[in-house]
Amino acid sequence: MNKLFIVSLLFVSVLFLPIQTKAEFQVPTLKETDQWKVELLAPSKDETLAQGEKGKYEVYSLLVTNKNEKAQNVSVRGFRNEPGTSKMYGLAPQMESDLIKKGQTFSFTNFPVKEGTEKLEFIIMWEEEPYTYKDGTKASSGRAYKETFVFKPNGNKKAPLD
């Protein structure tokens, strides 16, 4: 009888314990298109870089690789959501470059992400080489492009974009 009472008490107490889910992003996770390969990676253990703080934020690294033709005026921006709102908040990974050739990479090492974040979004914008007119002059800029890469907790490795 005592054993049954203790087992029942343990079972009931487990049912009423607050369950807290931790939304961690699976690393490494890869998303790619014809132009870009974006990898969400584990953070560096280098103590001089930001480290996660339990209950406040997690830390990740990002590697962006140009897989195709050279890209000009490249801009990479990172955002995270806040549960309960449609607003996206900017992240530390932001970079700009005048020219990125095929195979070149950008890396953002150990950027913090608030715990409980449900979505990370990285937007890459770039231009193709400016058009050259028949008279030999070049246009001020080439055609503009944008691709968005979305990562969700416990990632879906197979989806190229979300």
Features of this protein?
162 residues; mainly beta; Immunoglobulin-like; four-stranded antiparallel sheet; 1 helix; 43% strand; disordered C terminus
In short:
The chain has 162 residues and is mostly beta strands. Helices cover 9% and strands 43% of the residues.
Structure write-up:
There is one protein chain. With 162 residues, the chain is mainly beta. It has a single domain, classed as Gamma-adaptin ear (GAE) domain (Immunoglobulin-like, Sandwich), CATH 2.60.40.1230. The chain contains one helix and eight strands. It has one helix at 2-16, and strands at 29-32, 36-41, 57-66, 71-81, 88-100, 105-114, 120-127, 144-151. The strands form two sheets. It has a four-stranded antiparallel beta sheet, with no helix packed on it. Strands 5-4-7-8 form a four-stranded antiparallel beta sheet, with no helix packed on it. The longest helix is centred in the N-terminal third of the chain and has 15 residues, at 2-16. It is elongated and about 95 Å long. The termini are far apart.
